[in-house]
Amino acid sequence: MNEKRTGRERFDALVARLRMHNVKHGFVAPSNHRGRRNARATLSCLMLIVTELAEAAQEVRRGIPATDTFAVELADAFLRLLDLADAHGIDLIRASEIKMTLNENRPRRHGGKVL
């Protein structure tokens, strides 16, 4: 059945599942999910995302970024990002589409960035 769902349906189902998990495990009150974040909580959530990415970077430093551990750390960061966006009522798919349109209209290596 999951194979027949669109990417958007799968994404929305993952956000709903994450929301239910957070409620079940006491990370948020069931009646107060959206809008629960104040500036301090938002900053804490952002730092948790950074921490997960730092753990993924540590796997790269070990020279084994193709491991399951690397994937799990990226997934941790992704789930925390989904939770933060959901708490603020942000549609990450739509925001990503808007951002990609902006990026596609920028000149090559804008801002003098070097890769």
Q: How are the secondary structure elements laid out?
A:
Blueprint: H1 7-24, H2 39-61, H3 68-87, H4 92-104
Helix pairs in contact: 2-3
Would you mind describing this structure in some detail?
With 115 residues, this protein is mostly helical. It has a single domain, classed as Helix Hairpins (Orthogonal Bundle). It has four helices and no strands. It has helices at residues 7-24, 39-61, 68-87, 92-104. Helix 2 (39-61) packs antiparallel against helix 3. It is globular. It starts with 6 loop residues before the first helix and ends in an 11-residue tail after the last helix. The mean pLDDT is 84.
Briefly summarize what is shown.
The chain is mainly alpha-helical. It has a single domain, classed as Helix Hairpins, CATH 1.10.287.
Coarse morphology: globular
Calculate the terminal CA-CA distance, rounded to whole Å. Answer: 42 Å
The CATH class name reads Mainly Alpha
What would you say the CATH architecture is? Orthogonal Bundle
Helix content: 55-70%
Number of helices: 4
- State mean pLDDT (0 to 100 scale): 84
Largest sheet: none
At CATH level 3, the topology is Helix Hairpins
Derived from helix and strand composition plus strand pairing, the structural class reads mainly alpha
Strand content: under 5%
Low-confidence sequence ranges: none
The figure for the number of domains is 1
Cα radius of gyration in angstroms: 17 Å
The H-and-E topology, N to C, reads as: HHHH
The overall strand count is 0
